[in-house]
Design goal:
Layout: H1 2-5, H2 24-36, H3 40-52, E1 61-65, E2 68-74, H4 76-80, H5 82-92, H6 96-115, H7 139-159, H8 164-179, H9 191-199, H10 205-219, E3 220-221, E4 225-226, E5 234-236, H11 237-249, H12 253-262, E6 276-278, E7 283-284, H13 291-305, H14 312-315
Antiparallel strand pairs: 1-2, 3-4, 5-6, 6-7
Helix pairs in contact: 2-3, 2-5, 2-13, 5-6, 5-7, 6-7, 7-8, 7-9, 9-10, 9-11, 11-12, 11-13, 12-13
Length: 341
């Protein structure tokens, strides 16, 4: 956690590394890791940094450097992922004021995601320059949005503002993720498309275990971790730890522990993590230590350790409301001052 905190800018920006690029999805992931470490103020500052840059349509730029948009395109996964961070933060340490402050930002982002949903139930990966959704949907991004919409529904129950459009959208999206591979672009070479539907809770139980088993030999390098791409001799820390999260969600914690242990060759002496290793050349590549790689380690360990409400976010897909349910099991009463359902 300290290695992640060391890369955060004074204004709250949480980039890949100090002076590097910042994309909203990875920034949220890094902020969640800070939350695990008790750095609630730092996590909130990262979320506020993103909130201040949200556009009126609910979008964020795909990339920033030094606070400047360097890739202004609108991508759905960036728009929606703050919901996951804010719900994780609520589970870690309930902060009614922060939820009330950021709820409009979450609502605008997920409203945009729903507007980008295609007829198949999948969500377009990006908006075209004319503002219409691209016809292409990416499976990993859609699995992440499945989780984001469910977190958004949980937050909606918390603040007393039900969002039936989100419930309909996540129902159709979950069906597409489980039954319609043709709704998504073929990126099956990438390990994320293999495990992410399990990690995000769209595929559960025996179906989840079968999915992970089917791709195991293709993606997992014994003793080193998971390949990022099936046909490249390159293992990456974030993908390995995200696979561990999927294994925990599928009820296979021992296998998850093995993967977290296997990728520790990427740990630097200061506690940061190198992004990956080209094992055919015994060379770290790219030569960078990213906040989101360290964050994936922290979140995997949190899910394995259990014992806190926040650990259930990735470890127990049933802890979030099922499509059609307005509130998660055991949810708190709506926040003071909010409209009641």
């Amino acid at each position: 956690m300290a290695a992640i905190a060391a890369e955060q800018a004074p204004d709250g920006a949480l980039p890949w590394f100090r002076g590097g690029q910042l994309d909203p999805w990875d920034s949220v992931e890094a902020a969640m890791a800070l939350q695990v470490g008790g750095e609630h103020g730092r996590a909130a500052a990262a979320y506020r940094w993103l909130a201040a840059r949200q556009r009126p349509d609910g979008s964020l730029a795909a990339e920033y450097r030094g606070g400047v948009e360097t890739q202004p395109g609108v991508e759905s996964n960036h728009a929606g992922y703050l919901a996951v961070g804010l719900w994780h933060g609520w589970l870690s340490r309930p902060d009614e004021a922060l939820v009330a402050e950021l709820w409009p930002v979450v609502r605008r982002g997920l409203d945009l995601v729903v507007r980008m949903q295609l007829g198949s139930g999948a969500v377009s990966w990006a908006l075209r320059p004319d503002g219409t959704p691209d016809d292409t949907a990416l499976l990993t991004g859609n699995a992440s949005l499945f989780q984001a919409l469910r977190c958004g529904i949980a937050l909606a129950g918390l603040v007393g503002e039900p969002q039936p459009d989100w419930e309909l959208a996540v129902t159709d999206l979950g069906e597409a993720l489980r039954t319609d591979p043709g709704a998504f672009a073929d990126r099956s070479r990438w390990s994320m498309d293999w495990y992410y539907p399990v990690l995000a809770g769209a595929v559960t139980g025996e179906a989840a275990r079968a999915r992970l088993a089917a791709g195991w030999d293709r993606f997992v390098v014994p003793g080193l971790g998971a390949r990022c791409v099936a046909d490249r001799p390159w293992v990456t820390g974030a993908e390995t730890c995200e696979l561990a999260l999927a294994l925990v969600a599928a009820g296979q914690p021992e296998a998850a522990r093995e993967q977290v242990a296997a990728m520790q060759h990427l740990r630097d002496d200061d506690g940061s993590y190198w992004t990956g290793l080209v094992y055919a050349d015994d060379a770290r590549w790219p030569v960078e230590r990213t906040t989101w790689t360290a964050a994936a380690v922290v979140l995997a360990v949190e899910a394995l350790a259990g014992g806190t409400p926040a650990s259930t976010l990735f470890a127990d897909p049933t802890a979030l409301p099922a499509p059609g349910a307005a509130e998660p099991t055991g949810s708190a009463a709506p926040l003071p001052g909010r409209a009641q359902p």
